[in-house]
Amino acid sequence: MGAQIKPSLGTGPYCYRLQGQVYHRVSPLYASDQHKESYGQLYIFDSSEATEKRLSNNQNCLQHVFEKLDFMLREINPFAQSYLQMHRLVQEHPTTSVKIVFLEDKSLDMRRYNAPTLCTEVEAIFVGDNGEPPANRDICVYPVGDTCQSISPLNQRCDPMTNPLLFPRGECSWNT
Predict the structure, then answer these.
(1) Dihedral sign, CA of 96, 171, 153, 54?
(2) Angle CA 174–110–2, to nearest 5
(3) Which PANTHER family match (predicted)?
(4) CA gyration radius for the chain?
């Protein structure tokens, strides 16, 4: 997250406190050799393998809970589906430059409620000859990389990508 977690003071209920700048990040499609697979990278594996990898990162969690959450997110979350679709495209065409690009709809009035409609409006897969995404890009997920990319907290897809359990259908957070 990029911030320091402050210890709880006193004997009252636990309060999660942060100090400093909070960063939201999105991982590349494939983990580098130095890092374990995590977050969106796990959606390219079958459910049982993804659950095993999640449990290795979180030993105190219940396997059946991870299995249910994985099933739900694979069914309804457009970002999970995007990672899998991008992986399949890379497998079919390994020499093609592929990126997932999320484009903002500039016609929406961000001061009012804009109900999400179709999941296909959330994503675009951009395959370019020169490897460059369009100039009006907002978030890009690259197939290969050593580090996570930062997402602006002002981006309406920041919360659904970094908190999929709060926005399981990928609803744009401050816009809905």
Answers:
(1) negative
(2) 40
(3) ATP-DEPENDENT DNA HELICASE, DNA BINDING PROTEIN-LIKE
(4) 17
Q: Which amino acid is residue 82, in one-letter code?
A: S
- The secondary structure element, H or E, covering residue 89 is helix 78-92
Closest CA to 24 of 99, 79, 86: 79
Asked, for residue 139, whether it belongs to a domain, the answer is: yes
At 50-90, the pLDDT tens digits run: 999 999 988 899 999 999 999 999 999 888 888 888 888 88
Q: Taking Cα atoms as reference points, which of 141, 166, 157 lies closest to residue 108?
A: 157
Side-chain-side CA neighbours of 72 within 13 Å: the count stands at 13
Tokens of 62: 């219940």
Q: Which range marks the domain in which residue 45 is found?
A: 25-162
Q: Tell me: the pLDDT tens digits for 102-146?
A: 666 666 555 544 444 444 343 444 445 565 555 544 556 665 565
Number of domains the chain is built from: 1
pTM: 0.59
**Residue 93 and residue 75: Cα distance in Å, rounded?**
25
